[in-house]
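::Amino acid chain::
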Amino acid sequence: MKTPLPKKFYETVTVAEGESGYSVHLDGKPVRTPGRRALILPTAAAAQIVADEFADQKDVIDPARMPATRLANTAIDGVAEEPQAVAEDLLRFAASDMLFYRAEGPEALVRRQTDRWDPLIDWASSALGAHFILAEGVMHVAQPREAIAAFGVHISAIREPVALAALHTMTTLTGSAILALAIAKGEISVKEGWKLAHLDEDWTIEHWGEDAEAKALRDHREEEMMAAAAMFAATRSS
């Protein structure tokens, strides 16, 4: 039995500026996180994204349709308390990044991976100073500690909890910390990053067709991805 969703109880949704940031108000009352903390965002743009999700609710409040709000709650209740643990998890992703592991065949898929993934590996090397090693198959390959350390410098520069939570969300959704950081730094668009993350899956679909249930799940995850990217960008706006 599913727990019934709470009914929508408010009429107006507004953003208010305070001393420590921007809060979302429902009928004049500030929203709190599940942990009962004040839901305060670092920029007006980030707060407006959350406010828009509340405004878009109809008869009930459905958290499944509020990815930016869930991300903000996670940032405030969790990431802000343990940012180092989140940064370390991102480095674990970087140590076994999806982009490192290449297919052994067929040749056309190998070529597609090379053409589309190698530019990001080159970018990590030239722009981030992280020189990673590629491998065929799925056997784990240990990356140079210097590469992980260089990548970590750029992760540690992201300190704002909402931005860090957004980067972590993009990483877990794609399986690639390199892709996520490339999106965060504006090297590629979020739509391009999402497509690159599903290169292998799209190859399979081209040859064998697409499962409806798998498509629905992917569409839902894409919405989460777009919300995370939007929240990251919003933390950078004035």
